[in-house]
Automatic annotation (TrEMBL):
GO terms for molecular function: 6-phosphogluconolactonase activity. The lineage of its organism: Bacteria, Pseudomonadati, Pseudomonadota, Gammaproteobacteria, Lysobacterales. GO terms for biological process: carbohydrate metabolic process; pentose-phosphate shunt. It catalyses: 6-phospho-D-glucono-1,5-lactone + H2O = 6-phospho-D-gluconate + H(+). Residues 12-223 form the Glucosamine/galactosamine-6-phosphate isomerase domain. It comes from Cognatilysobacter lacus. This is 6-phosphogluconolactonase. Keywords: Hydrolase. Its EC number is 3.1.1.31. Belongs to the glucosamine/galactosamine-6-phosphate isomerase family. 6-phosphogluconolactonase subfamily. Gene3D superfamilies: 3.40.50.1360. Pathway: Carbohydrate degradation; pentose phosphate pathway; D-ribulose 5-phosphate from D-glucose 6-phosphate (oxidative stage): step 2/3. It is an enzyme of class 3 (hydrolase).
């Protein structure tokens, strides 16, 4: 089985458990590899866990050796409400944690794609942990079904770390091109976490668990990737 399921009574319990897992992962990385590298999804579900981590790392002597980045981001200026990196920087602003962006400051899609690839080339090591969410259309990171770049984003032989993705159709709540880590880069991780809430998403996940069609449900590519083990964190 490519996944381990963790069910919680509510979102608070989920966030507390996820924060504890990530904190332990970072402690091991700092002790054994002299640094920690995390890729973190945006969205409401994992944010309380990130805030708990920020509280742990505030004033931490080794916080400067922790690097975090979004798993994906919208191509918007960094002061835009839809910017994932802006949200991460706000959470970790009172710490010495380094927050890397996937996009340029003005959010230009073409420049952002080049920027993300250059930035990731400076961080070639495996992620110590990756935290992902999932949409009702079964996208994860910004690997959307029907996007013309989906095949490239899922192709582990292309050796791409990041690419521009144009969701089709553009989500009404965030109608922007995206920059996303590719499946290959997401899988280059010591720990993979998928967080979701609600029965509706649980049903979407169940279909991806039983059907490996990643074109229809991109999250299935993560769940069924050979050798990968995904920790699924769910609460009602």
């Amino acid at each position: 089985m490519g996944w381990i399921e963790h069910d919680y009574v509510d979102g608070v319990a989920l966030a507390n458990a996820l924060a504890a897992d990530l904190a332990q992962t970072v402690d091991v990385a700092l002790a054994t590899r002299n640094g920690a590298l995390l890729a973190l999804a945006g969205g409401r579900t994992p944010l309380p866990a990130y805030r708990e981590l920020a509280a742990r790392w505030r004033g931490h002597a080794d916080a400067a050796r922790i690097v975090v980045m979004p798993t994906d981001d919208r191509c918007v200026p960094h002061d835009h409400p839809a910017s994932n990196v802006a949200e991460l920087r706000a959470i970790f602003e009172d710490t010495d944690v380094r927050v890397e962006a996937m996009t340029t400051a003005n959010g230009d899609p073409e420049r952002s794609e080049r920027y993300a690839r250059a930035m990731l080339a400076e961080h070639p090591a495996a992620f110590d942990a990756v935290v992902l969410g999932m949409g009702m259309d079964a996208h994860t990171a910004s690997l959307f079904p029907n996007a013309r770049q989906l095949a490239a984003g899922l192709d582990r032989t292309l050796l791409l770390d990041a690419l521009r993705v144009d969701p089709d159709p553009l989500p009404a709540e965030a109608p922007f091109p995206r920059i996303s880590l590719t499946l290959a880069r997401l899988l280059r991780a010591r720990a993979l976490h998928l967080v979701l809430t609600g029965d509706a998403k649980r049903a979407v996940l169940a279909r991806a668990q039983t059907n490996a069609d990643a074109v229809a449900r991109p999250v299935a590519a993560l769940l069924h990737a050979p050798g990968a083990q995904v920790h699924i964190h769910w609460s009602p």
